[in-house]
Structures are given as C-alpha cells and as structure tokens.
Amino acid sequence: MEIDNIYNMDCLEGMKQIPDGTIDCCVTSPPYDNLRTYGGVGDGWNFETFKAIATELARITKEGGVIVWNVNDQTENGSKTGNSFRQCLFFMDAGLNLNDTMIWRKTNPMPQVRQPRYASCFEYMFVFSKGKPKTFNPIMRKTKCGGQNYDSTCKNMGGEHGRTEKHLIINDEAVDYNIWDIAIAQNKTGHPAVFPYELADRHIRSWSNEGDVVLDPFMGSGTTAIACIKERRHFIGFELSKEYFDKAVRLIKAEQAQQTLF
After folding, report:
1. What mean pLDDT comes out for the span 65-83?
2. What is the pLDDT of residues 56-66, one digit of tens each?
3. Do 22 and 43 have their domain in common?
C-alpha cells in the first residue's frame, strides 16, 4: 500500500496488505449498527466483521500508536444495542489499552421523535493505544483564573494523619476536556454521515506528528485525508463504495493541489 492514497476496496482486504506496526494513528468512524445505509455496500457489517477489522488494526498499529474509534448505538425494540461497548471491550481483549473514553457532543443535533428517554446529542470517541501513547499534543483551553494565587489543602497520601497545605499559581492554559462540542458537518458530498472536519483534525493533531502515517479504514467523503494533508501527515484510506470513493478522490486531489506536501 502506498501512502497518500485511498483505495476503492474492502478495508479488511486492504489492511492485510499492510505490514505489522506500520500505522502511527487511526482516526475513523465505522458503520453504526444499521443506523445508516451506504448505497448497499455496508450491508454485511456485523460483529464478526468488526472483530476481524479490529484484529487487523491492532496488528498494523505501531507500538505507542493510537486508534480513535468514533461510534454510536442503534435503538432496537426499545433498547440501545450496546454494540459500541462490546467493540470497546474487544479492542481491549485484542491487547490495546483504553486510553480514554471521549464524547463528541453535537451542537446541532437532529430533532427526535418523542421517546421514553432524553434526546440524544452525543457519540463515543474511544481512544485506544498500543501500550503508552508515544504522542500527545493536547488541545489547550484558556483558564478563567489564570495567574491567580490558589491556597488549599489536600489529604496526605502516605497514610499519615492531617492534610498538606498547597500554594499554587493557576496556569493561563489547561489541557482541554474530553468532551468536545462540535457541530454536525454540513453535507455537501451526498454521503449519509459526513465526518466533521474539526473532529478529525483535532484527533490527528493530538495523537500524531508531522510525517506520521494516519489510517482511515472507512474513508467516506475523505475528511480524514484532507485533515492529514493540511496538518502535514501521510495518509492511507479505504472506501468500499465506488460512488463515495470517486467523490473523496476529487476532494483530496483538490486539497493536494492547494498544499505543498513534505
């Protein structure tokens, strides 16, 4: 597999052609149960298919590499399927660490028919790592009280009685929270579930460095590849639908024409 290319093929077959420990980071959004149809090409998606893909992902990820798995659950017969949690546990059984469970909170969620539950406005972003993450470039947020003195006490951790006084100066910035407020992407591609650019970009910047290789096994409309081009990362992608593959290729080539690569 050549880098800086996407392929119109089943990602499982494509990943089998990638050597062990090649991928620095994977950022992807796989099919969510049967919540979306993808021109009929994703109709074979089930838990057995997922397990085969997850096993290949674990194999081709480098030590210290990270897999970001953005996923959600369908409601069937009045109950959430819970498949996102089953997938999470399988990744851990495959030898990966659950580095974080993050939340994508949609700032513009779709209106919903009234149900006996609160309106859904988020998706999971499971962050797995092969060992300890080798890269973490945190998104920072401004603190409200930066520069101010803070006096407090904390419990002694060594078992002794009493508390220890702490005198701190609050930093101007702090690491961002693991809940990200991001709008659903405006769909101008015809794809039924466009990956928001900001979501892909934030994860790519967080878990990889310039020159690293980023994989998206479900490339869709090409968002992950476009973010890689802008952030000076290499990419490999797979997209089974010829229709979406062709659209992604056009968008990726247009972005490559505007950027100077490596």
Report:
1. 94
2. 999 999 999 99
3. yes
